[in-house]
Amino acid sequence: MKCDKCNKQASYHLTQIHFGKQVEAHLCESCAVEAGMPTKAQIPLNDILTDFVIAHTGNVEADRPPRSGPGKNA
């Protein structure tokens, strides 16, 4: 699939529902970064999984350990 903006190979695919209609966007990595989408280099997998577990177990945000990824003070 090609990027909607520059026609390079798309590696980010976003699906949203706007007013009951499904809207899809397909972007290459550089266009995704330009659009402000988080990329795999910006969000460590451990943080994604931790957020998922907290969201689905009923734990409060205060129980979450501090992030240690880029831009975070560890």
Q: Explain this structure to me?
A:
With 74 residues, the protein is α+β, with helices and mostly antiparallel strands. It has two domains: 1-37, no CATH class; 43-74, no CATH class. 26% of the residues lie in helices and 19% in strands. It has a two-stranded antiparallel ribbon. Strand 1 and strand 2 (21-27) form a beta hairpin. The longest helix is centred in the last third of the chain and has 13 residues, at 45-57. The chain is flat, with a radius of gyration of 16 Å. The termini are far apart.
Layout of helices and strands:
Blueprint (H helix, E strand, L loop, with lengths): L11 E7 L2 E7 L1 H6 L10 H13 L17
Antiparallel strand pairs: 1-2
End-to-end Cα distance, whole Å, is 39 Å
Q: What is the arithmetic mean of pLDDT?
A: 80
Overall strand count = 2
Strand fraction: 15-25%
**Poorly predicted sequence stretches spanning 5 or more consecutive residues:** none
Largest sheet: 2 strands, antiparallel
Domain module count: 2
Strand order of the largest sheet: 1-2
Radius of gyration: 16 Å
Shape: flat
Q: Can you give me a brief rundown of this structure?
A:
This protein is an alpha+beta fold. The protein folds into two domains: 1-37, no CATH class; 43-74, no CATH class.
Which descriptors apply to this entry?
74 residues, alpha+beta, 2 domains, two-stranded antiparallel ribbon, 2 strands, flat
